[in-house]
Amino acid sequence: MNILAIASFLISVILGLFTLLFIFRIVLSWYPQIELAHFPWNVVYFPTEPFLSVTRKIIAPLGGVDITPIVWVGIVTLIREILLGQQGLLTMALY
Fold it and tell me: Which tens digit of pLDDT belongs to each residue from 10-54?
């Protein structure tokens, strides 16, 4: 297994994990009474909050709804597709 295949696998796992974390943040936003700083919610909160806090400064809530996790799901999915999709950059470099 070459280094590019290992890097491709790691990038796939990391981007997949972040997609899942942002989806969890979308679901957790439906329950505002949950304290995200406490376990087990902090496992989702701490890795995603740096991305979301920066994006919240650019994109204001629409109708009181924070859409930044949805934006990040789209961004991460797009990056994953560009790098690892059927005709992605890393996929094409492997073959």
Answer: 999 999 999 999 999 999 988 889 898 899 899 999 999 999 999
The number of residues in the chain equals 95
Annotate the chain with three-state secondary structure: CCHHHHHHHHHHHHHHHHHHHHHHHHHHCCCCCCCCCCCCCHHHHHHHHHHHHHHHHHCCCECCECCHHHHHHHHHHHHHHHHHCCCCHHHHHHC
- If DSSP states are collapsed to H, E and C, what string results for 61-83? CECCECCHHHHHHHHHHHHHHHH
Q: Quote the pTM value.
A: 0.87
Question: Using an 8 Å Cβ cutoff, are 9 and 84 in contact?
Answer: no
Residue of 81, 69, 68 whose CA lies nearest to 16: 81
Query: Are the C-beta atoms of residues 84 and 30 closer than 8 Å to each other?
Result: no
The answer, yes or no, to whether residue 1 has pLDDT greater than 80, is: no
